[in-house]
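## tool: complex_structure
## caller: assistant
## args:
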Amino acid sequence: MGISVYIASRDDRAKLIKTILLEEYGLEESFSEQIYNENVKSHFEILKDKISFLAETCYVDSFYRDSYYHYFSSKLNCYSRDCVRISLFDGEVYEEDFAVSDKYISLQKRYRGFYVLRPTFPHIIGRSVISPMALKDSDMRICVSDFSTTANGLKFKICGFPHSSQDTETITCAETTLWAVMEYFGNKYPYYKPVQPSKIIQQLNDLSYERQVPSRGLAVHQISYALKEFGFGTRIYGKKQYGDEFERLLSCYVESGIPLVVAIQNEGAGIGHALLAVGRENDYLTRFDELKPYIIHDSDLRQAMGRKNIKVYDYDSMSKRFVFIDDNRPVYQKATLTRPAEHYPTDEWRNCTITHFIAPLYPKIYLEAFQAKQYVIKFLITGPQPILQHSEYVFRVFLASSRSYKHELARNAGVHGELKHLMIEAPMPKFIWVAEISTKELIKEGKANGLMIVDATEANIYHKVNPLIMAVFDGNLLVSEKSSGKLESKQLNLHPFSIYEYNLKSYEL
Amino acid sequence: MMKKISKTESINERLEREEKVTTLDRQEHIDAIIAMNKQMEAVRREYQIKDTNSQITAANVILTM
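## result:
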């Protein structure tokens, strides 16, 4: 049997899915209708009206095939091996477009990603990569990776974050989340490899006392363990342990371009769910007037700030909506951290709160966010050359790869003049913590006037000024001489510069 | 033709020449660094406790839905 190809415009989306379920999988009409309404429709409703669909049958999806060969094929009931792939294009597409070489570039420009429909009824939405440009609400800044695919014989590339719904048997929310993290990192960096469900199950064997399929979910620490085994230097953060710092740490990692596994729970309703925080809404700088001063728990530091009349604002305290990848919901859901399931239809779900998050860090990032942020603030307020008195500062701390940071620096995106040369020529580890120091007014323009660069590979934070690579504020450049450990101050002015926003890719309406 | 294009050395030499470089090694600087190191040691201990407790509680949250 050959591959059947269907093209459908917006108005025929429902008909397309029902026809495929009817003709390709032999489902009854009423069941097809039910599946479309309950499991597919919501995914299509978030798409722009002008998106058109191209569906191909007999699609071999490695993600589903893995579940099929390791689980579904061993059942009495017959499951098809094949999936259907639905490719999305901005605007109308015609059969002839794929046969004329001149149209290829236009098709690539209008390509917006794909959904895989798998025969695990009714949970049929499988692996998908959708560009935010396909959405009605595309105002977001998120982690994305490039994926290569094909549609009707032509090769295409798409930029997005991987998503899949759970099939509830081989993959529940926990496994889907693990798969999506690895799919993202595996496609983005050669250091990591994408993993299939059977590999996830195999990896968790050592931590399990019972069989793992059909899946009954995973505990938070099991997800962290699996990620560690897949090559990450994972860190777990608990809401109860970190208190009001918890959400700021989560924000800091998201701002660093690291997708986080987020655990939400409504204990009373018996709900525990895993999802991914992959970005945030695009522009919220105008809300900076509402920002409250950073509450310092350390009494020494609080006293020092009182004496010097310094007020500090943490960029991560800004209230904003984050972008989540949730396997129960359509891709790229926006919600606040206080109500991460606000887009769910029932109160039981909407009352879920975040209990933990897991940061899958590069294994050689030895200095994590809590200590890095504390180091920055203590250095600025109580260090050997503290920041000027009687002032208000906004500080923004994030991780960046030194390669990307220097790349953008060299392209004139940030600091200018002699300091730019000093920064580009400074030896740095693969990952650095960057602290941009600004004012409430400057940050609204997306600018800062001070900077600290901290070594993310230096875990010894309590010896001399060990992790400091350089700091520039109040007309001075502070550099630590690595050989002697001495700190030098050089008079060098830093003019306001654009803040670094290249950890996340920006999409606009 | 070969040309050295790095500028760090020449910038540092100019700053030295113009007496714009100070080593922060006076007693007040050393005292500030020692005090900061003590605070950071406390931060490290605080982090270790929070981290261990986060791991313990993480074992009790089951994600199934």
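## assistant note: Chain A has a mean pLDDT of 93. Residues 29-45 of chain A form the longest helix (17 residues). Handing back to user.
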